[in-house]
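Journal club prep, notes for RB
We'll compare a predicted complex against what the paper describes. Inputs for the fe (ii) ion case:
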Amino acid sequence: MIDLSDHRRRFLAFTEDFRDVPDAAPLRLKVEHTFKVVGQAETIVASLKDDPDEQAWSGDADACRAALLASLYHDCGRFPQFRFYRTFLDAKSVNHALLSLRTMRDGDFLRDESVRVRHLAQCAVLLHNRYELSPLLSPVARFVTDVVRDSDKLDIFRIMVGYLENALPERDAVLLHVQDDPGRWTPKVMRCVLEGRVARYADLRFVNDFRLLLGTWMRELRFAATRRTLAESGLMEEVLAGLPDDPELRQAREKLHVMLEECRHGRGGKR
Ligand SMILES: [Fe+2]
C-alpha cells in the first residue's frame, strides 16, 4: 500500500490558503473531486496485478507512486485559477494543468520524492487535460498519465450527473455555461459518437451535448477497473436516460448503450 498521508496533509494545507476566496463553493468541490480521483487511482493501481494488459506496471513502484501523487495534485492549479480569474474555463483564463505544474513547483510539493517519481508525476499533471496524448510519450509516462486521466474522467462523470439533474448555484460553473434546452443537441457532437471520436469541449452548446460528450469518454478509459467502476456506478445509465427521445438521436443512443455493456465486462477501452 502506497502511503500518501504526508502529501494529503500538504494538499489540504495548501487549500487552506484559499479559504477566504469569495464564493468559494466551486473550490470546495475541487477538494472533494481531488480525493475521489485519488481513490479511483488507488483502485486502478490495486487492480493492475489482476489485469493481463497492465500486469507489468504493478511491479514499477515509482510509476504507481507517481500516479497517485499526480492524482492528488493534478488540479491544484484550479485554486489560483479561480482566485484570479473567477472561472474554471481555461479558454477564458489559463491552462489549469500548466498552472497546477507551476503551483506544485512553487510549493515544492514533491520535495521528498526521487527524481524519477517527481518527473513522472509532473509530466502526468501537465498532460492530464490534453485532448490526446502524443504517440512519442514513453510507455511509463503514458501509464502514469492515463491513471490520472481515467480517474479524473470517472469523477467528472459523477459531478456532471449530479449537475445535469439539479439546478444548484454552482451548476453554471460546472457545466461550463452551456444552454439548458432539453430538446436540443449539436449535430457535430452527435457525429463524434457515431464515428467513435471524443467530442471537444469547444463544440458543446447544450446540456445534451454534455451527455453525448460523457458517452464518448467511455472509449477513452484505458483501465478495465475504471470501465467496470463506471458501469457499476449506474452513472452512465443516468446520463443516457436524459437524452431526448428523438429518432435522429436513436443510433447514437444505441451505440452508447452497446459501449456501456462492453464497459461492464471490462472491455471496449482504447487498447
Ligand atoms: Fe484538471
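Talking point for the session: Residues 74-75, 96, 128-129 surround fe (ii) ion (CB under 6 Å).
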